[in-house]
Amino acid sequence: MTLMCPQYVLGRDEQIYERPKESLPERWHLHPEVVSTPRDGPYGCIGKPLALLTLRNTLVRLVTMFDFEFAPGEDGTAFEGKAKDRFTMGYGDL
């Protein structure tokens, strides 16, 4: 015996949901701060904080695992002196 209960019908049952025929996204989540909506724009991403945390952790691991220094004969002035200030920063030749 197979028992089926159509989700469409359940989702519109007034015994289960208040105002079942209205679109109320807030009824589906307990934490509205983790929901990304189209009004957040093309770069609104709920995974962005996790991605930034991963980048920070990766940078810290690289800096602590390796010794960084300028090439012989370099002191960093040419590197920083040729920087061009734009919307993003572009550095001179390394």
TrEMBL record:
Provide an example Pfam family for this protein. p450
| InterPro entries assigned | Cyt_P450 (IPR001128), Cyt_P450_sf (IPR036396)
- Coiled coil spans: none
Q: Identify a single GO molecular function assigned to this protein.
A: heme binding
Protein name, as recorded: Cytochrome P450
- Which lineage do the record's taxonomy fields give for this organism? Eukaryota, Fungi, Dikarya, Ascomycota, Pezizomycotina
